[in-house]
Design a protein that fits this description.
Keywords: ATP-binding, Nucleotide-binding, Transport
Largest sheet: 6 strands, mixed
InterPro entries: AAA+_ATPase, ABC_transporter-like_ATP-bd, ABC_transporter-like_CS, ABC_transporter_ATP-binding, P-loop_NTPase
Number of strands: 14
Strand content: 25-35%
Mean pLDDT: 86
Radius of gyration: 24 Å
Organism: Asticcacaulis endophyticus
CATH topology of the largest domain: Rossmann fold
Distance between the termini: 32 Å
Pfam family, one: ABC_tran
Number of domains: 2
Low-confidence stretches: none
Strand order of the largest sheet: 6-7-8-3-9-10
CATH architecture of the largest domain: 3-Layer(aba) Sandwich
Helix content: 25-40%
Oligomer: single chain
Protein name: ABC transporter ATP-binding protein
Shape: elongated
Number of helices: 10
CATH class of the largest domain: Alpha Beta
CATH superfamily of the largest domain: P-loop containing nucleotide triphosphate hydrolases
Length: 304
């Protein structure tokens, strides 16, 4: 899969001396959904701002779909749509005029059929003549997405797109994101709802203190850094339990529960093999539960 965004040695130091980005190297693949995760203040929004031309880097290069952001800004920016965190738009303009004007800013002529499709996909068509000020917070968020898509970008940044929106909108939004990916649009999202990243993303990047500390395919990341806890309920208490395939269990205070921890990089048959060997050892158990670590568990471990 070829690269649509290539970031090399990107740095940003503010006038205060704060170094927000420290030599970022990052390639985004064409047509993927890439989740950029990090705690508050990690540099996510600064990085997105630099790619979208809203923040002037102090070093490094950014190539967006073959165009250098600093040398060919207009061509590069025309490839990019941005849904920002803030609900910033003219409150006294209608939905239709807001979206149509945003398309015109990129030098594109009218295309009523395309704009109608966007508004219908976002459940905004019946609000097309309403002024932004009259809309709910969730509807305003949809308008931001429509604006970002108005000029038919190949790259779409979603910066905390579901912050403060209801469950229905969140579901509709992710359905739309999947459709866009199917149409070849590259999606880069940041979110504090890490379960969304786990569900949606093809690859995960983690940024902390201005540095990219990990970029990995989601499935490989879950396998490599995740772990499985096998919790065994015993019929009779025990003070000793067998070590199986190098795994020594934790024993509860009452002696009725054993917890074996299996690292994610072990083979997929390891939990089943452990249970089989435990049964062969003569242990009499009444229950088995397996808890697999989530992406959020892995994320917390990484940033700590």
């Amino acid at each position: 899969m070829d690269t649509i965004i290539a970031i090399k040695g990107l740095e940003k130091t503010y006038a205060s001396g704060h170094k927000a980005l420290k030599g970022i190297d990052l390639d985004i693949r064409r047509g993927e959904i890439f989740a950029l995760l990090g705690p508050n203040g990690a540099g996510k929004t600064t990085l997105i701002g630099a790619v979208c031309g809203l923040v002037r880097p102090t070093g490094g290069t950014i190539i967006a779909d073959g165009h250098d952001i600093s040398k060919d800004f207009r061509a590069a920016r025309a490839k990019i749509g941005l849904v920002p965190q803030e609900l910033a738009t003219d409150m006294f303009v209608t939905v239709w005029n807001t979206v149509a004007f945003s398309r015109g800013l990129f030098g594109l002529g009218p295309n009523k059929a395309y704009l109608e499709k966007i508004l219908k996909d976002l459940s905004l068509w019946d609000k097309k003549d309403a002024k932004i000020a009259t809309l709910s917070g969730g509807m305003k968020r949809r308008v931001l997405i429509a604006k970002a898509l108005s000029h038919e970008p190949k790259i779409l940044f979603l910066d905390e797109p579901t912050a403060g929106v209801d469950v229905e909108l969140r579901r509709d939004m992710w359905q739309m994101v999947r459709r866009l990916r199917e149409q070849g649009v590259t999606i880069i999202l940041t979110t504090h709802y890490i379960e969304e990243a786990e569900d949606m993303a093809d690859r995960i990047g983690v940024i902390n203190k201005g540095e990219i500390i990990l970029v990995e395919d989601k499935t490989a990341l879950m396998r490599k850094l995740g772990r499985t806890e096998v919790v065994i309920g015993l019929k009779e208490p025990t003070s000793a339990a067998p070590t199986i395939s190098g795994h020594t269990p934790l024993i509860s205070e009452d002696g009725l529960t054993l917890t074996y921890v299996i690292d994610g990089d072990e083979n997929d048959e390891a939990p089943a093999d452990l249970i089989k060997r435990l049964a062969q050892s003569g242990m009499d158990f009444t229950s088995i539960n397996m808890n697999r670590s989530s992406l959020e568990d892995i994320f917390v471990t990484l940033v700590q």
